[in-house]
Design goal:
The structure holds two protein chains of two kinds.
Chain A lengths: L3 H20 L1 H12 L10 H13 L2 H4 L13 E3 L4 E3 L16 H10 L14 H4 L4 H11 L12 E2 L9 H9 L15 H11 L5 H4 L17 E3 L2 E3 L15 H10 L9 H9 L6 H12 L17 H18 L25 H9 L1 E2 L11 E2 L8 H12 L11 H10 L7
Antiparallel strand pairs in A: 1-2, 2-3, 4-5, 6-7
Chain B lengths: L2 E2 L3 E6 L3 H12 L4 E4 L7 H4 L8 H6 L13 E3 L7 E2 L28 H4 L1 H9 L17 H15 L7 E2 L2 E2 L23 H13 L3 E3 L9 E2 L5 E2 L21 H4 L1 H4 L5 E4 L3 E7 L6 E7 L5 E11 L3 H11 L16 E4 L2 E8 L15 E4 L18 E6 L20 H14 E8 L8 E9 L5 E6 L4 H20 L4 E5 L17 E3 L23 E3 L14 H19 L10
Parallel strand pairs in B: 1-14, 2-3, 2-14, 3-11, 4-21, 14-24
Antiparallel strand pairs in B: 4-5, 6-7, 8-17, 9-10, 12-13, 13-14, 15-23, 16-19, 16-22, 17-18, 18-19, 20-21
Helix pairs in contact in B: 1-13, 6-13, 7-12
The chains are: A mainly alpha, B alpha/beta.
Protein name (chain A): C-type cytochrome
GO molecular function, one term (chain A): iron ion binding
Cofactor (chain A): heme c
C-alpha cells in the first residue's frame, strides 16, 4: 500500500520533526501541560466515582482493545493491525509490574490526553488519545479510579510490534506536531448549541471516539481534514458515513433510530454487525438513553457529506436480472421479497444507506462469510447471516450485490466479480464448491 | 476416582424444553445453574443455516439430529409374558440429542391439554360412575388442574411465540377458535398461520358435519415476534421442513431460538455438553440428592455437586435415571406396587387417507404445525354415556413435510410399490392426497410400564430401559370410534377415495411410527403410593430432586405433549422459586 518512495519521505519527515520536537518546542509544550495537571494528591475515590468511572470506561470501550480474545478483561494483548504494523494493546489492570498499577492519576491523564505513556514513552495513535484528549480531567480521574478496582492481572504485553521504521516511537512526536491540535484538544462547549448537543458532541468526539473508525485517514494514519465521519475503509470493513447525507449517511434515520440502534444493536431497518456489533455490545448498549439521544442529536447536526446523484443500474442489465433471481432463491426467506427485512434480525434494503455505501465491501464480505447481529441485553438473539462463499460464485455475488444496490430506491455503483474475488482472498473465504 | 466440579445451586440434566425453561427461571431467580447435556451444542444460525438445502435423506430418513442408536437403545415387548428385545431402529421413538433436545427438531404443535385430562379419574367417576373405567386401568388425577396451569401455559406460549386463535377467552367463546378449550386469560401472542387448501377443505367438511374447526396452535411464527426475554423470531416461510430439522430461520419455537440466546449470556449459567449423567448421587439414607455423576466425552468421570437436582431429559430417560439412581420405588407388575415406571402411556392413533380428484393441495407449502383440527371428539368434549370407553381424540389435517421421500407411500391402496405405475400414481397423489390424523388419548394400564431390562445393558454396563406396551381395550374402542368419525370427515371433504386406518386393530409395534408422544412413568399426583412426584414435580422420596417432562403425565391427552411439558415445568419452577428456596423440603406434606 505504500511505495518505497513514500515510506522514505515519511521517515525523513518524521525523523526531522521528531528531532525538532524532542529538542525544543514540543518538550516545552509537554512540560507545560504536565504541570497543569493537579499533582497526585487525589483523594480516595468514592463508590459513586467508581461507578461513574465504570460507566465512562464502557463509553470509552476500553475493553474492546485492551482484552485479548479469551483473555482476562483489560489485561491487554489484542493485536491491532494498524496498516503500519501490529500494535498490541497494553495491560491496563492495576498490576504493578505489567499493568498500570503503579501509575498516578496524573500519569494516566497524560497518556489519555497526550499519548505519553510510562517514562515518557510515545503511544501510537492506535490508542485514540487524539479523541480522548477531549475528555475532561474529572472523567478520566473516575475512569482511573474504576480501573484501580479491577483484579490485577500479571500479563506482560509487548506493545510495539511495528516493523522498522515505524517501531521508532519518537517519530510520534513529529506525528503529534503535524496532526494533533494540542491547543484545541480538550472539549470546549459550543455556547450556541444546547446542553444536549454539547453532551453528544463530547461523547462522539471524545470517549466514544467514533472518528477513529468512521473518518478517512491520511497516508500517515491521521484523520483527514474536512472528512469528519464521512466513512472509510477499516481493515477490510467499510465504516459508514455518519453525516446527514440522506443516501449513504444517517440523514434518513431519526434520532430514535440512532438511539435504538446503539442501545439494542439493531433498529427496524438495520442491524449492527462486524466491528460495529462489538462496539454496540461492549460499549454503546451500556449508555443511558439520554446520553445516546444526545449523541443522536449531535450526529444529526453534522452537515451532509458531498454526494452526487447516481442513476440506478437499469433492471434490464444482465447483472440485475441475475441478481434478482439469486436474491429470490437465497436471500428473500429472511430479508423478505420486498426487502423490508425482519426487525432486529435481518436488515431491510429499501433506501438503505449501508447498501448504497461508497464502498460495497461490507455487503460482499457478509455474503461471503456471513455475520452476526450484535448481542445485547435487550436483543440477546444473535441472529446470523450464513456464509455463501461455498455456494455463490464471484459473478453471482457481484450480481446480487449490484441488484441490492440498485433496487427499492437504491442507486449505487455496480460491483464486479473481480472485487468479490479480491475480497474472497483478503478475508480468507472459501472457494465455491 | 471422579473429578469434582465446584458446587452449583442447581444441576439440570438435559437441555431440552424442560431443562432450558427451568434453567432460565432459576438463573433469573439468582441461582447458579449447571446444565449437563448428552449431545452437543446446537446454535440456531450456525447449525441450521438457511443457506443449506434441507436434506430429507440426511435429517428425516436418517435422523441426523436425533439420539443415535450407537449411544443407547432400549428393549421392547408388547406384554409382560414376552421377553423384550433391544430395538435396532428407533422408528416411533424420537429422542432429543444436543442442546435444545427434541425441542429443536419437533413440529411445533403447541397444545394445552383440556381441563378434563387432568382430572380424568374423578370426572369420569362423577359423571359416568366407576364402572366406566375398565378393569386393570390405572387412571388417576394429576394433582394439578387446568386452572392451576393456565398462567404457565400462557407464559410458555409467550416465550415460545405460539401462533393460534383463542377459542375461549375468560369463558367467552371466540369464533374461529377451539370452543372446547379451557378458558384462557388472553389470545395467543401471534395470529394463526395462513391456511392451506387442505385446511379449507377440512374446514368445509367440518361445517357440513356441524363440527367446530380451528387452526392448530403452532410453534411456527405467523409473523415477526419478540419474546419476553427480548429474543427475536422471524416469520415462518412455510418451507415445511420442521420435523427432524432445526429451524435456522428463527421461526420455530425451540429452546435454541427462544431461550438459549438469553440463557447463554448469563454468567450464572454453565452448560456442559457431550457429557452423560450416570446417576443422581444420594446421601447414604437416600433422603437427599448431593448432585450427579457424569462422564464427559473423553470418558472421564466427574461429580457435579448441587443443592437441587432437576431431571429433565427425555421422558424415557427421566424414568431410567430415577431407576438407576434409586429415587422412588420401582413399579412391580406382580404386586402392583411401586411408582417409578408406572402409568407409562403413548398416543392412540387412527385416521383416514383422503384422495381428491383435480385438486392442487401444494404440499410443498407447509409448516410443522400448519394444520386445521376439530376437537368435537376429544377427551370429554362429547357425551360418553352411549360409548363404551373414556377419552377421545383430536382430529386434524396437516400441511407439512411435502417431501419427496416421505410422501412416497401416500398412494392409493393397490398401487405397486415401485416402477412406472407407482411413479404415475405418486405424481398424481403428491398434489391430491393427504390424511386425516387422529391423535388420541392414551389411558394407563397395569400391564403397561417401564422398568430396567434384566438382560441388556448400555455402553457403560447399565441396564437398558425396558418398555412393555400394547393398546388397552379402552383405547382400542376409542380408536375404532374415532376412525369412523375420520371417514365421515373424509366424505364430507368430498374426497373421491377415503381409506380408513385403525392401527389399534393389531398389536402395537414400535416399528410403525404412529406417534413419538410417549408419556408417564414418573407421574405426578397427590398420593405417593400411585405417583413418583408430587404436584410440583418434586420427588416424594428425595425432595431436592425435581423431575420435569412428559414423564409426569398421569395419562396422555389427545394432543402432543410439548405445551403441557412447558406449562408443568414453569409451574414447578414457580414453586421452587416462591416456596422451595424459602424453605427447602417437601412442598406437599404427607
Amino acid at each position: 500500500m505504500f511505495t518505497f518512495r513514500r515510506i522514505a519521505l515519511l521517515v525523513i519527515a518524521l525523523a526531522v520533526l521528531g528531532c525538532l520536537g524532542a529538542g525544543g518546542l514540543y518538550a516545552f509544550n509537554r512540560v507545560t501541560y504536565a504541570n497543569q495537571i493537579a499533582e497526585t494528591t487525589v483523594p480516595a475515590p468514592t463508590a459513586d466515582q467508581i461507578k461513574r468511572g465504570h460507566y465512562l470506561a464502557l463509553a470509552g470501550d476500553c475493553v474492546a482493545c485492551h482484552t485479548a480474545p479469551g483473555g482476562a478483561p483489560y489485561a491487554g494483548g489484542l493485536q491491532l493491525n494498524t496498516g503500519f504494523g501490529i500494535v498490541a494493546a497494553s495491560n491496563i489492570t492495576p498490576d504493578r509490574d505489567t499493568g498500570i498499577g503503579g501509575w498516578t492519576t496524573k500519569q494516566f491523564i497524560l497518556a489519555m490526553h497526550r499519548g505519553i505513556g510510562d517514562h515518557g514513552k510515545r503511544l501510537y495513535p492506535a490508542m485514540p488519545y487524539t479523541a480522548y484528549a477531549k475528555v475532561s480531567d474529572a472523567d478520566l480521574t473516575d475512569i482511573k479510579a474504576y480501573l484501580d478496582t479491577l483484579p490485577p492481572v500479571n500479563h506482560a504485553v509487548i506493545a510495539n510490534q511495528m516493523p522498522f521504521p515505524f517501531n521508532i516511537r519518537l517519530m510520534m512526536i513529529g506525528w503529534n506536531m503535524l496532526f494533533f491540535d494540542f491547543g484545541g484538544a480538550e472539549y470546549k462547549a459550543d455556547p450556541t448549541q444546547t446542553a444536549e448537543w454539547n453532551r453528544g458532541a463530547y461523547l462522539v468526539q471524545g470517549l466514544e471516539h467514533c472518528s477513529t473508525c468512521h473518518t478517512t485517514k491520511n497516508f500517515l494514519g491521521a484523520d483527514e481534514a474536512g472528512k469528519f465521519l464521512h466513512g472509510t475503509d477499516l481493515d477490510g470493513w467499510w465504516a459508514p458515513d455518519l453525516t446527514s447525507n440522506t443516501r449513504i449517511g444517517l440523514g434518513s434515520w431519526s434520532e430514535d433510530d440512532i438511539v435504538t440502534f446503539l442501545k439494542t444493536g439493531a433498529n427496524d431497518r438495520m442491524v449492527a454487525a462486524g466491528p460495529m456489533a462489538e462496539a454496540v455490545t461492549n460499549s454503546t448498549q451500556h449508555l443511558t438513553v439520554p446520553d445516546l439521544h444526545a449523541m443522536a442529536v449531535y450526529l444529526k447536526s453534522i452537515p451532509a457529506s458531498d454526494d452526487t446523484g447516481l442513476t440506478p443500474v437499469p433492471p434490464t442489465d444482465p447483472q440485475m436480472v441475475a441478481g434478482r433471481a439469486i436474491y429470490g432463491d437465497n436471500c428473500a426467506a429472511c430479508h423478505v421479497l420486498n426487502a423490508t427485512g425482519v426487525p432486529g434480525m435481518a436488515p431491510a434494503f429499501v433506501l438503505s444507506p449501508s447498501v448504497q455505501a461508497q464502498n460495497p465491501e461490507n455487503m460482499i464480505r457478509t455474503i461471503l462469510a456471513g455475520g452476526h447481529v450484535a448481542v445485547t441485553e435487550t436483543n440477546p438473539t444473535g441472529a446470523a447471516m450464513p456464509a455463501f462463499d461455498w455456494k455463490l460464485s464471484d459473478a453471482q455475488i457481484a450480481a446480487v450485490t449490484t441488484y441490492l444496490r440498485n433496487s427499492w430506491g437504491n442507486a449505487a455503483g455496480p460491483v464486479t466479480a473481480d472485487q468479490v474475488a479480491a475480497k474472497r482472498q483478503q478475508i480468507g473465504a472459501r472457494e465455491r464448491n | 476416582m471422579a473429578m469434582k466440579r465446584p458446587k452449583a445451586d442447581a444441576v439440570i440434566i438435559g437441555l431440552g424444553w424442560a431443562g432450558s425453561l427451568m434453567a432460565n427461571e432459576l438463573t433469573l431467580a439468582g441461582l447458579n445453574v449447571v446444565a449437563i447435556e448428552r449431545g452437543g451444542w446446537r446454535d440456531t444460525s450456525g447449525d441450521f443455516p438457511t443457506s443449506m438445502d434441507t436434506d430429507e435423506l440426511r435429517y428425516a430418513t436418517r435422523r441426523e439430529l436425533l439420539q443415535p442408536l450407537s449411544v443407547e437403545t432400549m428393549s421392547f415387548r408388547d406384554n409382560p409374558s414376552q421377553s423384550a428385545r433391544p430395538l435396532r431402529d428407533f422408528n416411533t421413538y424420537q429422542f432429543g440429542w444436543g442442546a435444545g433436545g427434541a425441542g429443536s427438531h419437533w413440529n411445533g404443535m403447541t397444545w394445552r391439554f383440556l381441563p378434563n385430562d387432568f382430572q380424568l379419574y374423578s370426572n369420569t367417576v362423577k359423571k359416568y360412575g366407576a364402572n366406566k373405567i375398565l378393569p386393570g386401568m390405572t387412571v388417576q388425577d394429576w394433582g394439578v388442574t387446568y386452572d392451576n396451569l393456565e398462567p404457565f401455559y400462557d407464559k410458555f406460549e409467550r416465550l415460545a411465540g405460539t401462533s393460534g386463535k383463542a377459542g375461549n377467552i375468560q369463558g367467552v367463546i371466540q369464533p374461529g377458535g377451539n370452543p372446547f378449550e379451557g378458558a384462557r386469560a388472553r389470545d395467543y401472542p401471534l395470529p394463526p398461520l395462513e391456511r392451506t387448501q387442505a385446511a379449507m377443505l377440512f374446514d368445509a367438511g367440518a361445517k357440513e358435519l356441524g363440527w367446530h374447526s380451528f387452526p392448530v396452535p403452532a410453534g411456527n411464527t405467523s409473523g415477526a415476534y419478540t419474546n419476553p426475554l427480548g429474543v427475536h423470531m422471524a416469520p415462518c416461510t412455510y418451507c415445511g421442513y420442521c420435523e427432524f430439522f432445526g429451524c435456522g430461520n428463527w421461526s420455530k419455537s425451540s429452546p435454541n431460538a427462544c431461550i438459549l440466546p438469553a440463557l447463554m449470556n448469563r454468567p450464572s449459567f454453565t452448560l456442559i455438553t457431550e457429557s452423560e449423567v450416570m446417576k443422581v448421587n444420594l446421601t447414604p439414607d437416600k433422603k437427599l440428592a448431593t448432585g450427579v455423576t457424569y462422564v464427559d466425552k473423553s470418558g472421564r468421570e466427574w461429580e457435579q455437586p448441587a443443592d437441587i437436582v432437576v431431571i429433565s431429559a427425555y421422558q424415557m430417560d427421566n424414568v431410567r435415571l430415577m431407576l438407576l439412581s434409586g429415587i422412588g420405588k420401582p413399579y412391580d407388575r406382580a404386586s402392583l406396587t411401586g411408582v417409578v415406571g408406572r402409568n407409562y402411556a403413548n398416543q392412540t392413533i387412527a385416521g383416514a387417507s383422503v384422495f381428491f380428484k383435480d385438486e392442487h393441495l401444494n404440499p410443498f407449502i407447509g409448516a410443522g404445525a400448519l394444520a386445521q383440527a376439530v376437537d368435537d371428539f376429544n377427551s370429554d368434549n362429547f357425551d360418553h354415556a352411549n360409548v363404551d370407553f373414556i377419552g377421545g381424540s383430536n382430529m386434524l389435517i396437516h400441511s407439512t413435510n411435502g417431501r419427496p421421500i416421505g410422501l412416497g407411500n401416500a398412494v392409493p391402496p393397490g398401487t405397486p410399490r415401485w416402477g412406472s405405475a407407482w411413479k404415475k400414481a405418486y405424481q398424481e397423489s403428491y398434489q391430491t392426497a393427504n390424511s386425516i390424523y387422529c391423535m388420541g388419548s392414551s389411558t394407563p394400564h397395569q400391564d403397561v410400564f417401564l422398568d430396567l431390562d434384566p438382560t441388556y445393558t448400555d455402553r457403560f454396563g447399565r441396564p437398558l430401559l425396558r418398555v412393555t406396551y400394547d393398546w388397552n381395550e379402552n383405547d382400542k374402542r376409542m380408536a375404532h370410534f374415532i376412525a369412523d368419525r375420520s371417514v365421515e370427515m373424509g366424505h364430507a371433504m368430498k374426497a373421491s377415495l377415503v381409506v380408513r386406518s385403525e392401527p389399534t386393530a393389531k398389536p402395537y409395534s414400535p416399528m410403525d411410527n404412529l406417534s413419538s408422544h410417549t408419556t408417564g412413568g414418573a407421574v405426578m399426583g397427590d398420593d405417593p403410593t400411585t405417583s413418583a412426584i408430587n404436584r410440583y414435580l418434586q420427588s416424594w422420596d428425595v425432595p431436592n430432586t425435581f423431575v420435569c417432562g412428559a414423564s409426569a403425565f398421569a395419562n396422555n391427552g389427545g394432543y402432543n405433549p410439548t405445551g403441557t411439558v412447558g406449562a408443568l415445568t414453569l409451574w414447578a419452577a414457580e414453586a421452587i422459586k416462591t416456596k422451595y428456596l424459602k424453605s427447602p423440603g417437601p412442598l406437599v406434606a404427607l
